[in-house]
Amino acid sequence: SSGINAEYGQLDQRTYVDNLRLDSLNFNYPCASKRMFKDPSVTQCTIVNGKQPWKYLSGTFVFYNNTFHGADGIPLRYMAKESVLENNLFSYNDWTSANSRVGNGGHATVLSKSLSDKAIRNTLLYNGEGHGIRPTKRADVTLNRVVGQCQGLQQSDGAGIHLTSNNQPHSHIHRNWIHDSPKYGVRFDGAPPRVGVLGTISSNVAVRLGPGGIQMKGDNHTALNNLAFDNEDGSTRHRKDCSLCVWKYVRTNPVEINKYSTVVGNVADVANGGKRPNADPYPLNGLNITDNVVDPDVKSYLRDPDNYDFRPLGALITVGPYDADPSTYWIPGRQEYKPSSPVPPTGSTTVIAANRDALMWLPGLGHVTHHVYFGDCAGEVTRADVSHAVGVVSGDVNVMKIGRQLKAGTKYYWRVDGTSRDGDVVKGDIWWFETI
């Protein structure tokens, strides 16, 4: 199915289906509770199930380029042998937490149960659930952006991307941004004797988060080239807290975890192996702990991290999720029909002029060429045609070098137009920022 609006309704597959693709659908306010009618039952939104029981699950489900907005409950849950969740937007869902009649910290904005689970290039904006993406077996969670998850703290536990112990083996959490939330960014959960093994958390950015950026429990895991810093309010963490948390023990449980884990090339303001009573935290735990950069002033090593430019400044560091001078700057999240997610973000008044050497953006969906327009006059940038483009890039390239030193205290405007393979041009929005 594609191109359908589903407002004030729901797709509820209570038997099972074998193969299904939901493509470019809009689920606006798809479900609501009946509490005003004195019916306390749990809301049922969009549910898609393959044939059960669990170990004999059937079905290949693809959810592509859909929007889920305003659900009063879990906006999407499914069970399948194989599932792909790609290029979807989930915004402002479940802010009443009315999806359980008992205390429960195990729900999620996207609640899946698959034998092979992929979540690629989705955007989650200000959803109320304690967890954002909660995948299952052999998960591939790549290039997702999770913002403001559970900001009202109406649910306990949770993380932007959360894996329980039995779902960690051979799962890969890669190149995601999780930020501005009272929850963890990425979390491998569990406690002995139930611990996960052989999961990988690599090249993620987890910043401005409540209890910590990345928490890794279990053993034989890998944490590679991640970046994590700052409390939710933007302040540096206390040295006894952690942004990169590779625990040695789970609270008072006496069994050691992460004894054989690998922690290499990560960048954080505070990193350790968890708290211990009346003493400094344990050091990062693992068999291979090398080449990590841990410094309370870690943001000074990066070009403009408060404006989502996480490139290292020169050769100060050579680890972490980004190179110092890439032609492609990966930006996670849903691709729209036109260029989006500008770096620096539009409306910023704190762009560091001395460090601003380039403009970056998320290409429009299906675009193969981009024309970039830039200047200090909004009218000129708005009216500019291809003859006045400051540059043209093709393929995966999404970095345009400015080519001159910007002035502090100046407002700049820019625009990126995208061209599809068929030659159709989509004019981009006018973005602006002010320098300091």
Q: Can you walk me through this structure?
A:
The chain is 1% helix and 38% strand. It has 1 helix and 39 strands. The protein has one helix spanning 378-383, and strands at 5-7, 19-23, 26-28, 46-49, 60-64, 67-69, 76-86, 89-91, 108-120, 123-125, 131-134, 140-142, 145-147, 159-163, 172-174, 177-181, 184-188, 200-202, 205-209, 214-216, 222-224, 227-229, 244-246, 262-264, 267-268, 271-272, 288-290, 293-294, 302-304, 309-312, 340-343, 348-351, 358-362, 367-375, 391-394, 399-401, 411-420, 425-426, 431-435. The strands form 6 sheets. Strands 2, 4, 5, 7, 9, 11, 12, 15, 18, 21, 24 and 27 form a 12-stranded parallel β-sheet that branches. The protein has an 11-stranded parallel β-sheet with strand order 1-3-6-8-10-13-16-19-22-25-28, with no helix packed on it.
Write the SSE topology:
Elements: E1 5-7, E2 19-23, E3 26-28, E4 46-49, E5 60-64, E6 67-69, E7 76-86, E8 89-91, E9 108-120, E10 123-125, E11 131-134, E12 140-142, E13 145-147, E14 159-163, E15 172-174, E16 177-181, E17 184-188, E18 200-202, E19 205-209, E20 214-216, E21 222-224, E22 227-229, E23 244-246, E24 262-264, E25 267-268, E26 271-272, E27 288-290, E28 293-294, E29 302-304, E30 309-312, E31 340-343, E32 348-351, E33 358-362, E34 367-375, H1 378-383, E35 391-394, E36 399-401, E37 411-420, E38 425-426, E39 431-435
Parallel strand pairs: 1-3, 2-5, 3-6, 4-7, 5-7, 6-8, 7-9, 8-10, 9-11, 9-12, 10-13, 12-15, 13-16, 14-17, 15-18, 16-19, 17-20, 18-21, 19-22, 20-23, 21-24, 22-25, 23-26, 24-27, 25-28, 32-39
Antiparallel strand pairs: 29-30, 31-33, 33-36, 34-35, 34-37, 37-38, 37-39
